[in-house]
Amino acid sequence: MFAINCANLITNSPAQATEPTKNPQPIVKKTAETAFSDGLNCLKFADITCAQLALVNIPSQSANAKILAGGIAILQGDDDLAFRLLLPLDADSTLQPTARASLHASLSLAYEKLPDMLRTIEQKIIEEQVLIASNTPPFAIQQAHTKLWALINSLSKDQLIELRGASAEANLQGWIDLALTQQNQAGIADWQKAYPDHSANTFATSLLQAVPTIKKDTSQQPLTGKVALLLPQNDEKQAASALALQQGFKASAAIDNSAVSKSPAEINTYATPDNDITSAYDLAINDGANYIVVVGFSNINISHAFSVPTLLISPTAHKPSVSKNLYILSQSLNDEAILLANTANRFGMQNVLIVSQGSSNSDEITAAFNEPWKQIVGKDPSQIKLTDDSNLLDVKAKISAQHTDMILIAGEAVFARKIRPYLDMATPTFGFSTLYEGIQNSALNISLNAIRFTDLPWLLKPSDFHDYQAPAKEAAQDAVSQRSFGLGADIYQVLAKLTQEPRQSTSFNGLTGTIHIDEQGEITHVPSLGSFTNNGVILEK
Q: What domains appear along the chain, each with residue ranges and CATH number?
């Protein structure tokens, strides 16, 4: 503004006699429409100061000024002012499509904070319809669909059914019915037949990209004989996890055998102090082990061939086994990273910002995500690394300036709660299982609402695994122990399927996620996505 005022002064002053006459350069001043467009971009990146500067150039009584002021009020937490400014504009038939889309996007955010999920989703759908009707570029519509889907997918099945009954709007019912499908090929095909003209048809088809076509195996027989569990127990923490894993394994064996009235396999545990498991392995063989499970090592060294089927549970990325009788099940950050990268890509996200806390764990998370993301989009994500001395107000400005369509928090729950108020609430935000401390309805999680994260379905929705709930009470109830319990339960199922003759391509929905085993014994593992909501943590469909 100072430069423009100076230019006006120079232009309006008399020409000096010694200067030849020149054609004056036109002064370019932003129109109210341009300022409004700039202001909407500022809102998108939660830049309040930028939006306020744009608002100065718009007539204060105009509808556009009220829409922009309402968006600023939402960012400042003044929801009452936002509603007073925005609600009367809903009946204004003179609004241009861009303004109307922004109006309903802001109202959606305001209703979400009440919370009123029915009106939140209704407003988001109106925004989507305005964008479609005004021939908005496909990528912008895809972004609107992504945010709408994230809202709907954050709700439980009971909530979805309740919302469906509360609204007679066909478009909203279609979105909810899509969320209620199993999101497999048959379910989505049936949905598309029921809603042939629905605006989400292309989006529904994209959901199939993440759904593998897997042959189900229903012929599994329980394990018989002796099973040896080789577990690291060097300290109290490892010993507690080892006990919980053993309890999960035994629970799964008992459930499997109860269906055919057989006694569970005999299970013995051996401590393994380091990567050289030769002594423990040989001891298990001498004790008559028919199967051996080795837990907690990236690689295992043994001075001779594996003489019985041996399952290695590795904390690092999956690598195909080249040894006879050795099978590898990865339970690693890489599994979580691949799920997050594929989810982001499926939702059309291109610019990812990683916000990390500068710890070794945070570095591991960042590295795990970088690899699959670079393979998918061909570039590294952006990153902001925070320290204990970081000024979070400065960080908020830096984050807003990144112009990202996805934020990934690389850190633990305490860190996420600390930085969440400084992130753009309108930008989809994700994290790893490190964000979840295992308490379904913890008041501490309220500040994490709408963040999606990877974890075990067992921790996200234990009611889906009714048979395991009673035996799980015998294990420690902290998140680490319950994750170990779930892993132990799935290890039994994997081992049982690996030993079937003839071996078939098979999959099952385990306590740790979806596990697939091919005919050659290669094992892949996909964890689940959860969300923090006002009603606690939920498992996404």
A: 32-210 (1.25.40), 226-334+464-515 (3.40.50.2300), 336-460+531-539 (3.40.50.2300)
